[in-house]
Structures
1.
Amino acid sequence: MGPPLGHRERKKQRTREAILAAALARFDERGFHATTIPEIAEAAGVSPRTVSSYFPAKEDLVFPETEETFERLASRLADREPGETAVDALRAWIADEAPRWDAADAQARIQRRIVASEETLQAHEQHHKARAQRMVAAAIADDLGASIDDLEPQMAAAATFAVLEVLGRDVEEREARVGDVACIAEGTVDAVALLDRALIFVAAGVRALQDDPPGMG
Amino acid sequence: MGPPLGHRERKKQRTREAILAAALARFDERGFHATTIPEIAEAAGVSPRTVSSYFPAKEDLVFPETEETFERLASRLADREPGETAVDALRAWIADEAPRWDAADAQARIQRRIVASEETLQAHEQHHKARAQRMVAAAIADDLGASIDDLEPQMAAAATFAVLEVLGRDVEEREARVGDVACIAEGTVDAVALLDRALIFVAAGVRALQDDPPGMG
DNA sequence: CACGATCTCTGCAACGACTGCAGAAATGCG
DNA sequence: CGCATTTCTGCAGTCGTTGCAGAGATCGTG
C-alpha cells in the first residue's frame, strides 16, 4: 500500500520523530516560549537549520499532523456518496479520529497541556478549527441546497464543532484529575454519541429556522 | 467624565493614531507581512522603538481596540440585573457595537481586508472570538443553571457567534461588491435582527436537548 | 566495489520582530 | 526659569526564519 520505504525515507522519519520528541519534552518542561530552536536541535542531535527545515514554524512542532487530519476530513466530505449526508461523513471521520484524541495517549496529553499554556498556540488551534468548521459548513450547505453564506449551515457547523470543544475539554479535565491510565481509558467519552447529541440540537434549530422564515422589514 | 486630558495625554493619543493610520495604509497597500516596523515608524514620524512601545506586537496594529470591545462585552454580561438574561445583555452589546462594524467606516473596511489577506491575522481574530464566546457560554450556563462544561451553553454560544461570523462576511462582501458608500449604508443588515434569528435556532436546539436527555449507556 | 547523480544536512549570513537599558528630549509644575 | 517626571530614541542583544552554497550521505548502476 504505502510507498517503498528506502533507507532514506526511514531515516527522515526517524529524524522527524526525534526532533518532535525532543521538542515536546522541552516544551512540556520549560514552556513553549522559553525553549529555543537550538536547544531542540541539540537534544535531537541535528543542526538548528535542520529543525527549521523539517518544521518551518515553531508552532508546527506542536501541531505535527493537523494538516493530515483536516485533509482526511476534507476527503471524507468530498468523497461521500449521493445518499450520504455531510453529517454522516463527519460522524465517520470522528469515529476514525477519536482514538487519536484519547487521553491515554501520552503524546496527545502533553500536546494539550502545551497548547493550554500559551496564547499563541491557542490562537493557532482556533484557526485550524475554524478551517475545519468552514469545510463542514460548506458540506452542510450543499446538503440543504443552501448557500455557504446562509445562516443555517453556518450555525449548524458552529454548534457541531462546539461539541468537539467540549469533548476536548473533557479529555483535558480527566487528564488533570487522575493519573491512572486505566481509569482514563475506562471513562473515555463516546465521541460519536456526543456528536449525535449535538445533532439533536442542530436539527431542531434548523427546523425552527425553516418554519419561521425571516420577516421582510 | 473622562480624566483631565493634558497636553501630554493629547499628544500620546495623536501619536498613537498617527502610527495606526500609517500602519493601516501600508498594510493595505503592500500587505501585512511585507510591511516592516521601521517603515511604519518613518511614515508616522517616530522611531521604530516607539512603535514597538505603543504596540507590543505587530498584530496589535490591526486589532487596536479589540481589548476594549471585549471588556465592554464582559461588563455587560457581568453587570446585568437579575431579570436580564445573558442574551439580553448580548443583544444590548451588539446594538452598541454594530455602528463600529459598519461597512461605511473606511477604517473598519481596511481592517477587514487586511485580516482577510493574512492567515496569521485570521488566527488572531479567531482567538479573540473564542474568548468572547467563552464569556457568553459562561453567562448562558449561569442563566440555565448549568455548568460551563455542559453541552447546551457551549452550543448556544457557538451558534450565536456563528451569526456574527455571517454578519462580518456579509459586510465584507457588500464592501467588495460596491464602492458607493451611500449604497453600503443603505444595505447594512440589522445586526440585532440577525441575532434574534440566531436565537430562534438556539432556543429550539436547547429545548430539543432538554426534552431528550442523554441516554444512560 | 566504485562512481557519478541525487538528495539531505549543515554553517553562514542576513532580515525582521521584539526587549532591556540608559541617555536625550519633552512636558508639567512651582 | 529650574527641577521632577514622563516619553522618546538609539544601541545592543536574542530569537525565529530564510536563502544559499558547500559538505556529506544515499541511491542506482555498471
Note: Residues 6-8, 11, 36-38, 49, 52, 56-58 of chain A lie near DNA strand D (CB under 10 Å from a C1').
2.
Amino acid sequence: MAEPIRMTKRDAARRENEARILAAAEKVFAEAGFGGATMQLIADMAGLPKANLHYYFDTKEELYRKVVQQIFEIWLHAADSFDNAPGPVEGIGAYIDAKMDISRHHPFGSKVWASEVMHGAPVIQDYLETTLRDWTKGRAAVIQRWVDEGKMAPIDPRHLLYMLWAATQHYADFGHQIETLNGGRPLTDRQWREAKESVKTVILRGIGAI
Amino acid sequence: MAEPIRMTKRDAARRENEARILAAAEKVFAEAGFGGATMQLIADMAGLPKANLHYYFDTKEELYRKVVQQIFEIWLHAADSFDNAPGPVEGIGAYIDAKMDISRHHPFGSKVWASEVMHGAPVIQDYLETTLRDWTKGRAAVIQRWVDEGKMAPIDPRHLLYMLWAATQHYADFGHQIETLNGGRPLTDRQWREAKESVKTVILRGIGAI
DNA sequence: GTCTATATTTCGATAGAC
DNA sequence: GTCTATCGAAATATAGAC
C-alpha cells in the first residue's frame, strides 16, 4: 500500500536531481566546452557528489546529449511563432521576437548548440539531417510563397533563414563580447528592446516587407 | 663568417615549423575546442613529434594564444574595406564582401575566435577591452555620420555592427549546419556569390541605403 | 634542434560500504 | 539512493640521449 507513495517520492527526487544536474551541465558545457567541462565541475555546481552524476547519467557524453536535445526542443518551439502568419511582417517579426527572447533567457543552451555545430555536430548530426532539414524545407516554402504572392522582395529563403538565425543567436553566443563593448555591463531591458527593434527593422525593411 | 648563413637557415626552419604548428593548431582547436584539442593531435597534423611542439611553444595555452592573436589580425584587416568609403553602400558593401571572404577562406580561425568569446574570452579579454572597443567606437561614429548626413536610415550603429558580424561569421561558424542543409555538399562558387548578394541586399536595403 | 621515454597530473568511471 | 575511496586511462610537460 505504501509502494505508490514511495515511488512517487522517489520519482520526484529523481526528477529534481536530474533537472539540477542538467541545468548545471548546460552552464558548464557552455562555459568550458565539452572537452573543457569536467564531471567534477558539474557535480560541484549541482551540489552533488561526482559519483551521483554517474548514477543518473552513465557517461559524460550521455549527459551532454541530453543537454543538446533539451536545447533543440527549445529551438523548435520558437518556430510556432512563425506559423499561421498572414505575411512576413507578422511571421518573421514574431519569429525574431521569439528567437531574441531565447537568446536572452537561454544563453547557455544557445552556446552549447553553437559549439556542437562548430565541432561538426558529432552528437546531433542525425537531428540536422532529419528534423532540422524538414523544418527548414517547410519554412523556406512558406517564405517562397510570400515572395510569389508579392508580399516581400525575391530573397533566397535559405539565406534569409541563416540571417535570422545568425542575427538572433549572436546576442547569446557573443553575449560576452557585446557586454564588454557595452562597458562591461549586461544589456538593460531597454537595450534588449532596441536590439529586437533594430534586427526586426533591418530585416523586414531589407526583405521589402515594410 | 658562416654564422649569418647558419642563423638564417635556422631562422627559416624555425619560422616554417612555427607556421606548420600554428596552422595545425588552428584546425585542431577549431574542430575540437581548446579542451578537446590535444598536443598529440596537433603534432600529428603538423607532422612533428609532440615534444617539438613544447620546444617551440612552452605550453598548450601559449600556442592557443598565438592562434587567437593571428585570427584577431585578420579581423582587423577586414576593416580596411570599411574605411575611406563615401557612403554606406560602398563602405558596408565592401566590408560584407571582405568578411564573407574571410568566412570562406579562414573558417577555422573564425571558429576559434567564436569559441574563445563564447567561453568568456579568457585569453583575449584585454584585446576586447582595448583594440576592439576602440575599433567599434570608430566605426560606429562613421555609421552615425552617414545617418546624420541622410545617407541611410537612423539605425543604432552598434546593433548594425553586431548584425554584420553575425550574418557574415555565421557562414564560417555554422558552416557544417549550412553544408548539411545543402544536401551534405559545401557551397559552390555560385552559392557563395548568392550568399554574399543576399546578405548585402538585405542589409543595404534594410538600412535604407539602396 | 630533434626525438624517445617517462614523470606527473587530471579526469572519467567504478567498487563497495552505508 | 548516496557517498568515499580508488582504479585505470589519457593528457601535459619534461628529462636526457643524440
Note: Chain B is about 80% helix and 0% strand.
